[in-house]
């Protein structure tokens, strides 16, 4: 395989690889492909790089993984030269970093912005994909890599009357590029996941009044965000090789942190409280790593959940509001735990109120109010922090047709089926970065992205060296992997929550636990072993005839 040609005047553009999306996955994929001499084109629906961080510009948006770890590790120069300002980088800074990476590695010349991939059809004669993009052009590619992101299809809720609302309506996942000024306005915020919990305190500072409409109370841990000192930055920089190795190979979630050595019930109540207090005071996602069985054993989980509930009671002055803010419908951690700055304390402000929409769902949105249990809560602007069609939503928006013209949506109608989260049987030469069936959203995304990109890059080199034309997941290997992913998930408490991990936030979406929960280290070893055994479980075919040049 060599960089594809498109010599005849009317020939379609042809590439070795078309990459869909220029977020962190697409950018690194492009960088690797180029370095290996493959021709590649990236199509990105946004007007710039950054993916998640391009779209999620809502007030208070920041990553819940610490910035020194939520960063690429592939370039030593890059990780030494970039100065993160805070423990948790705000959205604007992560976007700046993404732009810096695009410039530093000269990526933009191979990225076409403001362009959606609408359709990809596998041509079984040519062993290549025919890709239709939104400017009407068709391009041909030997391989397609979906770097479409796990949380990139913002979901507008199906609430009666929403379109009748007269004021502005914002979705946190599709926020305007211009600053939004809530000064003097009564704002209604629907949704109390990570985006709602991050934005509520900031909106409350600006708005005349903020009404938070809560369907499910959520567990949230203080971020304890602060400016990073040189000393803290250097502690990472001087130890990056070991920190990165640990994150990749040891930590279940791809984050370097102190690992638990026992279960919650192995400690006395006093010792347990002291441990939770220390984690609470330190802040951040690692609260859940206080013990090694919080995701497995309900009695153990209850001890952590009770601790957080007690903190909510301590912080929130009004007893009824405090009670309502205490999560009771799912074990802690089985919905992505949130990391906040002053979320619970925000409800002590006189200009903030909380409305329970679990007991009484929103009846209707009128021109100027949200109606709940017959009461109109008047608002001038609405913020929808209602989440995403996660993990499969962005893939489903592309009309992907594999062998026999079968669409990926047809194949995934009962839930996504992949081998290792990387490929789906019947769809040759189509790779997914951090797809369902891989650790993806249960991990530090950049760790998982780099692992998948490197694995795919090695695989393409192998195919080139061996003169192979196609590669696809074998049906049997895929079935076994899907069963394995399910079996592991059902050995944990995770499926007990109505979470977006389960597709439960989208009416009609099949309830399947989508990410692989076995841990990034174990998963990486499995992927490496599969590759070492000649891509065991995948089916590869040889090129029987030279590649056809398709004319338009
Ligand atoms: P999430 O975590 O999916 O949160 C969405 C929130 O919106 C959640 O509280 C939902 O309640 C609520 N929601 C969704 N639809 C409705 C309707 N129709 N009516 C009322 N409330 C609704 O999305 P985020 O953007 O906050 O975070 C996504 C991830 O980004 C996060 O986990 C981090 O990894 C970063 P529900 O819980 O479904 O009852």
Automatic annotation (TrEMBL):
Q: Which GO terms describe its molecular function?
A: monooxygenase activity
Q: Which InterPro entries match?
A: FAD-binding_Monooxygenases, FAD/NAD-bd_sf
Would you say which domain of life the source belongs to? Bacteria
**Record key words, sorted:** FAD, Flavoprotein, Monooxygenase, NADP, Oxidoreductase
Q: Return the Gene3D superfamilies for the record.
A: FAD/NAD(P)-binding domain (3.50.50.60)
Cofactor(s) it depends on: FAD
One Pfam family hit: Pyr_redox_3
For this chain, the family text in UniProt reads: Belongs to the FAD-binding monooxygenase family.
What is the protein name given in its UniProt record? Answer: NAD(P)/FAD-dependent oxidoreductase
Species of provenance: Bradyrhizobium niftali
């Amino acid at each position: 395989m060599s960089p594809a040609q498109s010599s005849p005047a009317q020939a379609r553009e042809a590439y070795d690889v078309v990459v869909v999306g220029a977020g962190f996955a697409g950018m690194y994929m492009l960088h690797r492909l180029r370095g290996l001499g493959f021709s590649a084109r990236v199509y990105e629906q946004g007007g710039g790089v950054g993916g998640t961080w391009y779209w999620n510009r809502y007030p208070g948006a920041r990553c819940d993984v610490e910035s020194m770890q939520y960063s690429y590790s592939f370039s030593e120069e890059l990780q030494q030269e970039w100065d993160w300002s805070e423990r948790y980088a705000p959205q604007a800074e992560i976007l700046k970093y993404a732009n810096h990476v695009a410039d530093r590695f000269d990526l933009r010349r191979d990225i076409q912005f403001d362009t959606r991939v609408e359709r990809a059809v596998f041509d079984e004669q040519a062993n290549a994909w025919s890709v239709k993009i939104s400017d009407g052009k068709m391009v041909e590619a030997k391989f397609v890599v979906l770097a479409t992101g796990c949380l990139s299809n913002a979901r507008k809720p199906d609430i009666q009357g929403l379109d009748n609302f007269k004021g502005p309506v914002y979705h946190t996942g599709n926020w305007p590029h211009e600053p939004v000024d809530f000064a003097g306005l009564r704002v209604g915020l629907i949704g109390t996941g990570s985006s709602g919990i991050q934005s509520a305190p900031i909106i409350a500072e600006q708005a005349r009044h903020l009404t938070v409409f809560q369907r499910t109370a959520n567990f949230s841990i203080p971020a304890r965000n602060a400016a990073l000192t040189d000393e803290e930055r250097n502690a990472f920089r001087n130890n990056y090789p070991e920190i990165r190795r640990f994150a990749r190979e040891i930590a279940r979630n791809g984050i370097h942190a102190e690992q638990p050595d026992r279960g919650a019930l192995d400690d006395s109540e006093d010792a347990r409280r002291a441990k939770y207090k220390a984690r609470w005071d330190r802040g951040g996602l690692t609260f859940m790593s206080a013990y090694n069985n919080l995701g497995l054993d309900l009695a153990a989980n209850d001890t952590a959940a009770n601790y957080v509930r007690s903190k909510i009671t301590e912080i929130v002055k009004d007893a009824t509001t405090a009670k309502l803010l205490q999560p009771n419908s799912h074990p802690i951690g089985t919905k992505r735990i949130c990391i906040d700055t002053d979320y619970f304390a925000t409800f002590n402000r006189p200009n903030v109120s909380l409305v329970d929409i679990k007991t009484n769902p929103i009846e209707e949105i009128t021109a100027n109010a949200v109606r709940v249990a017959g009461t109109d809560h008047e608002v001038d602007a609405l913020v929808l922090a209602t989440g995403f069609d996660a993990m499969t939503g962005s893939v489903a928006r592309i009309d992907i047709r594999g062998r026999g013209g079968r669409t990926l949506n047809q194949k995934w109608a009962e839930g996504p089926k992949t081998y290792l989260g990387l490929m789906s049987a019947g769809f040759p030469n189509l790779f997914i970065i951090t797809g369902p069936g891989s650790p993806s959203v249960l991990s530090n995304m950049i760790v998982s992205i780099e692992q998948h990109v490197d694995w795919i890059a090695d695989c393409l080199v192998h195919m080139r060296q061996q003169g192979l034309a196609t590669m696809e997941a074998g049906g049997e290997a895929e079935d076994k992997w899907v069963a394995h992913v399910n079996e592991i998930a059902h050995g944990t408490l995770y499926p007990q929550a109505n979470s977006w991990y389960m597709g439960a936030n989208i009416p009609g979406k099949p309830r399947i636990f989508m990410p692989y929960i076995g841990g990034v280290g174990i998963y990486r070893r499995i992927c490496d072993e599969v590759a070492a055994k000649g891509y065991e479980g995948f089916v590869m075919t040889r090129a029987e005839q030279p590649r056809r040049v398709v004319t338009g």
